[in-house]
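Budget justification note: compute hours in this period were largely spent on complex prediction jobs such as the one shown. Inputs:
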Amino acid sequence: MTAPLFKRIAFLGIGLIGSSVARIARERGDIAAEIVVNARTQQTLDRVMALGFADRVELDPAEAVKDADCVMLCAPVGAFAALAERIAPFLAPGAVLTDVGSTKQSVIRDIGPLVPAGVHFVPAHPVAGTEYSGPDAGFTTLFEGRWTLLTPPPGTDEDAIEKVAELWRRCGSMVERMEPGHHDRVLAIVSHLPHLIAFTICGTADDLADESRQEVVNFAASGFRDFTRIAASDPVMWRDIFLNNREAVLEMLQRFMEDAQAMARAIRWGDAAYIEDKVERGRKIRRSLIATKQA
Amino acid sequence: MTAPLFKRIAFLGIGLIGSSVARIARERGDIAAEIVVNARTQQTLDRVMALGFADRVELDPAEAVKDADCVMLCAPVGAFAALAERIAPFLAPGAVLTDVGSTKQSVIRDIGPLVPAGVHFVPAHPVAGTEYSGPDAGFTTLFEGRWTLLTPPPGTDEDAIEKVAELWRRCGSMVERMEPGHHDRVLAIVSHLPHLIAFTICGTADDLADESRQEVVNFAASGFRDFTRIAASDPVMWRDIFLNNREAVLEMLQRFMEDAQAMARAIRWGDAAYIEDKVERGRKIRRSLIATKQA
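Corresponding output:
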């Protein structure tokens, strides 16, 4: 077996992503020799011990990171600033500090200034997920064929970046570097806006007083179902993503609303060619997706 | 075996829905003794004969409906008026004329006045589908556990309604009657609006000049993918649905846009509680859906 990348990895937060990485680390053995898990409640930590992918659990994040040569933040991004402040004095010299947050400019803004000299901060985002959350939700194939985007600030230690990249490759992921602002815009359109829309349309449907929720539920197979799948994701995680990628999300939503208004106008005035053309574009993107095997 | 419901069924149009019903009729034998298929092109008809679920194919819809005691319109709803005009003089006395269109007020408006005395018009809508279209796309389990909604105008012959209901039950579907206007509003929110949104967001993503389509495609797993699946549906069918359920679609889109604007405002002003509440509602609807087994 290849030597483990790290002696000790500490997960702060252990939801879908964290528990998937921990399961892979446990199964492969070549990611970290020891796995420490921190979560906000003893109940979660008890569950983690029962699930068997951690060597040790710690209720205090400061205790969890001591002597760890890799610390991975897996909490909702809104919790990162407080977590970083708490752990900063306890981070081991030379340790790699990384995260899995879906917004990268905010993470660099919140954590960057708190990172002690000699600790290497490598922001990362594995672009993978399901609508399930919590330590039970993770599984070892989650990252296979998916991308992990690294957004290290200029001047970050190249060895540290490579170690994080290798960790994600060992998780089955493809790895790419990206500028944080560009990351936030791309993710706003492919992920944040679709989620915002899915949450919204579920609310719109729920508000219809004259059509009962049961009817919406009965006939959901016809399109609505896919939106509810997306909308089943973790509320706190998504609240934090929207608030921490505000500018890009608002810009993409604005563009989308203009396009939706143009469709409304075409429907009102019976512009069949316009509608057909827009529908055709959806098909084209779907075909590219299937060709790239992301479908 | 139970006696067939009909001596001869004629399908006008043979896409996903029509070819699924035809396959079931062929397999069960108790829906119709003879299956006749009409489509717009000889190429489609040749394919239908090769697929083996038709006894006869006819390029002229008038020829297809002659002596049929059940005629099922399975073309896009925008083609119904012309089809009905063409076949009306050739419909057999006592025949049942039904359809599978996704909009019901427009179907009654377009076909109703053309139905000859003695022919029984029973509008129907099987609420089932996939993103695939054409005679190859059909399969025999498409309607299992799904609803078919019947929207017969007042005064429609009860025996004819019951025969259509029984046809759909034999296809595996649950059957319910609904007022056409109510049908159009319910479907606008559960199906038409989700499709309109999916088509639109694919266009919005495609328009981003600075983020390439390849990046959108690479990271689509993160939410966008479900929208492209919906958006892969047949363009002509959807164009016709939007144009023929105009008022309900525009109203639901308007409600949705107001809700999306409210979300945008909450994001801009950092209203965390509002966002979390909206996200929670999506989860609740998803849970109802899973409880009703439509997920």
